[in-house]
Amino acid sequence: MFSHIKDLQFEAKPDGPDALFARRLQEVLGGKWGELTVANQYLFQGWSCRLPGKYKDLLLDVGTEEMGHVEMICTMIARLLEGAPQNLHEAAADDNPMLAAIYSGENPAQFIHAGGGPLPVDSNGVPWNGSFITASGNLMADFQLNVTAEAQGRLQVARLFHMTDDPGVKQMLRFLLARDTMHQNMWMAALQQLKDDGLEDMPIPDAFPDAEQENEFAYQLLNFSAGEDSAEGRWASGPAPDGKGTFSYDPAPAAHAPAPVLPPGDPRLYGTPPPTPGGIIGAVKDALS
C-alpha cells in the first residue's frame, strides 16, 4: 500500500525555462536506465522476494524512494517547459525575456501530447518499456544488476550536469548524484550481506553440481584477438573470485566440434534446398519421408 506525500524529497525548481534541457532530462526519466526503470525494477524485485525481512524491505524502501525521484524529475520538466516559446516567432522576439530558451531543440510532444509536461519516454521520444526491468527472484543476480543500473543512471545524470548552467537544475542533479552514490554502495553491501548470511554465492546459480567446477572451460580465458594483451589481466591466472577454481589462459583456442551440416528443411517453409541426386523433387520427398 502506497501513501503519497505531497512534499518533494528535494526541490525541483529551475531558475528559468529551457525546453531543450527538458527534452534531455527525459532520458533519466523514461530511458532504459532512467528513474522509471529503477523504481519499477526494485519494486518488482521486492514483490517477488520470498524472504521476509531486511532484503524485501530494502528493495521496497528504495523502489518507493525512486518513485519520489520520478515525481521530482517530472516536476522539473514541467517547470522547464513553463514559459518556453512555442513557435519560432516567440523564440526570436527581441523583447521576449525567454530568448535563452532553445526552441529548435525542444520535443514538440511535450506540448502537443502532455500540454507542457513530462512524458514516459526517453530523450528521443521512444516510450518507456517494461522490458527494461529485471526481477529474477535470485537476489544475488538482481543486486548485481542493480549496481549496474545505478552506475549507468549516475553516469547519465553526471553528463546532464555539464549540459546546463541553471543553478536550480544543478541543485536537483547534485541530490540525485548523491543518492545514486548511496545506492551503488548499498547494493554492493547487500551483495556482501548475502554471502555473509550464507544465502547466495558466485556464480549464479550457486546450486550447480560440483563436477561443473572441474570443467576446463569454467575458468579459462580464450584469446580471440591479435596479440595477447588480455592475458595481462587478473582474469587470466591465479585463483578465481569464487574461490572454487583457478584461471588459465588459452592463446589459440581450438575448435571442439566439426562444421555443422544441417538436413534439408521442411519444404513448406520454402527455403533453398541443398543439391540432391533427385533435384528439388528428391529434396521434397526426402524431407517428407
Automatic annotation (TrEMBL):
InterPro entries from the UniProt entry: Ferritin-like (IPR012347), Ferritin-like_SF (IPR009078), Mn_catalase (IPR007760), Mn_catalase_C (IPR027407), Mn_catalase_dom (IPR039377)
What does the record give as cofactor?
Ca(2+); Mn(2+)
Stretches the record annotates as Disordered: 230-289
As to how many cofactors bind and how, the note says: Binds 1 Ca(2+) ion per subunit. Binds 2 manganese ions per subunit.
Which UniProt keyword terms apply here?
A: Calcium, Manganese, Metal-binding
Keyword Calcium attributed: yes
Q: Where does Ca(2+) bind?
A: 57, 61, 223, 225, 227
Spans of biased composition, class Pro residues? 260-277
Q: What residues does Mn(2+) 1 bind to?
A: 35, 69, 150, 183
GO MF annotations, alphabetized: metal ion binding
Q: What family does the database annotate? A: Belongs to the manganese catalase family.
> What's the protein name?
Mn-containing catalase
> Which species expresses this protein natively?
Catenuloplanes atrovinosus
User: What lineage is this protein's organism placed in?
Assistant: Bacteria, Bacillati, Actinomycetota, Actinomycetes, Micromonosporales
